[in-house]
TrEMBL record:
UniProt domain F5/8 type C: residue ranges: 36-197
Role of this protein: May be involved in cell-cell interactions. No carboxypeptidase activity was found yet.
Region (Disordered): 1-42
Main location: secreted
Protein source organism: Tursiops truncatus
Protein localization: Secreted
InterPro entries found in the cross-reference section: CarboxyPept-like_regulatory, CARBOXYPEPT_ZN_1, CARBOXYPEPT_ZN_2, FA58C, Galactose-bd-like_sf, Peptidase_M14, Peptidase_M14_domain
Cofactor: Zn(2+)
Lineage of the organism: Eukaryota, Metazoa, Chordata, Craniata, Vertebrata
Record protein name field: Probable carboxypeptidase X1
Residue stretches making up the Peptidase M14 domain: 221-544
GO BP term, example: proteolysis
Matching Pfam families: CarboxypepD_reg, F5_F8_type_C, Peptidase_M14
GO cellular component terms listed in the entry, alphabetical order: extracellular space
Amino acid sequence: MKKRKKLTPPRPPVTARASVTTSPARTLDLPEKQEPDCPPLGLESLRVSDNQLDASSSQSFGLGPHRGRLNIQSGLEDGDLFDGAWCAEQQDAEPWLQVDARHPTRFSGIITQGRNSIWRYDWVTSYKVQFSNDSLTWWGSKNRSSGMDAVFPANSDPETPVLNLLPEPQVARFIRLLPQTWLQGGASCLRAEILACPVSDPNGLFPEVPVLGSSDTLDFRHHDYKAMRKLMKQVNEQCPNITRVYSIGKSHQGLKLYVMEMSDQPGEHELGEPEVRYVAGMHGNEALGRELLLLLMQFLCREFLRGDPRVTRLLTETRIHLLPSMNPDGYETAFRRGSELVGWAEGRWNHQGIDLNHNFADLNTPLWEAEDDGLVPDTVPNHHLPLPTYYTLPNATVAPETRAVIKWMERIPFVLSANLHGGELVVSYPFDMTRTPWAARELTPTPDEAVFRWLSTVYAGTNWAMQDPDRRPCHSQDFSSYGNIINGADWHTVPGSMNDFSYLHTNCFEVTVELSCDKFPHENELRQEWENNKDALLTYLEQVRMGIAGVVRDKDTEIGIADAVIAVDGINHDVTTAWGGDYWRLLTPGDYVVTASAEGYHAATRNCRVTFEEGPVPCNFHLTKTPKQRLRELLAAGAKVPPDLRRRLERLRGQN
């Protein structure tokens, strides 16, 4: 491991080359307000490939031109293959970073950042821009007032994106950024995105630009809070018989957490029908999941009206809940900044500054301590662990958004869920917290490792972007070598995650889907992102049919028994029945010995076989009351104890 370098505070920016001046005659005449014109070329989203990027020099491979992408994140160590920017060599007198658009393109602006690093301060403070059609002959962007080469102001910190619009848009194939000054003591390092519009090629000299997107007639744009609420209302009005919009609570700033329910009987739990959910927007700046859920509700409504058999079956056999924005306050902050200018972290937290994905109760620690003491499952249950006392106190640091979601989880018997995030391309599954205290990462599987790997593989295997064999890693890890899935704790530990809490406090199995390298993709990329994820979103919901399901009933009355425990031999994690006695237990194909038990009843055990055919496999139970329970009920009803029962009780007392 490399020795950590001592970090010194940044000094004021200075001219890095003696030959460069920034006199008023040469600085750029900036408009009062700068807003993006053309969409991004695709450095951040990886639509621009590594071989389209070139540079005058690089300090190392890990600081090569392919790392000069907006918002790219570094690895933990300087000098590895995954540093956080392009950096020219120190002795490079005329550094430049070049992008080949491959087609005639109208360049309209540039967005830059400094180097992402926990060890160093490096950023460019000014730069020039040049253009070419053949990479040999170049011309520069000119200052309107002086006619001289424009010098664009760049960054004053490593992370804040800075937008510069060109005085006049330029049509060319190549664009170069030429750093002029950078932080004293630092290096010429930058990350960038290029704003560019495609132009027509009447002579057909270049291959056609591939058309990305979807043929679905849906609303492909970013929706702020008001627009989201309006769209959900429109879907409800279009499909009133299969939809219901409801709120589970409010954010810290009073914005409602709206949920779209989709089912053939909205508003009620049907016996034997599983409940599933998608949650998006836990981090407000990770906007793709929000838009995918808004697109999904439009798609399900439209296809149900068309009679699509797959969608019809999904909505008649499943009750679906879609929460597009768990952190609406954070999203509004990010939305106001815009998709290209929000940076990596702005809007991530709620208005109180709380990271909601670290805000759920840590139930892992008490469970593991009880396991180490040999108390599970006889003394301490292996499921439905209660909230710790400290967590329920009025002054506990628990966000209102988190409290609302917990009450929602407790109110509805969810079976399956996915938590949609952004910034990577991978599906992670519990446990998210490492079992070894203070370990930064460590493989920490649940007793249902096989099920979670199955669920994760289903989504990753049907996601177009994850299955692209030519895709490059987003940042510093190549998840394709793991099948695009990973145990959350083996990636990085996350105490208080929603996934772990869902598994330990409820019946629900939940994974995290990192949907895209770009946390907040531009609107023109939403069509392609929908195509990347559409089949995966549907296929994942259908996995709720995997395993066994049934109803636990009283043998005498045929009434369903609530809170009966369903235990599977060899898996140290049980589930419980809903209030009607129905249950669902996700399992991979195989033979299982399943036991149903409930207070006041004799336990019952049976063999259940899960096949590869679509399930769930029926596995029902009828439980017989214990004599003690019968006696309680009789006495409560004021009845006399029957002679045969009295004799049995006397014999039991004699044995004791």
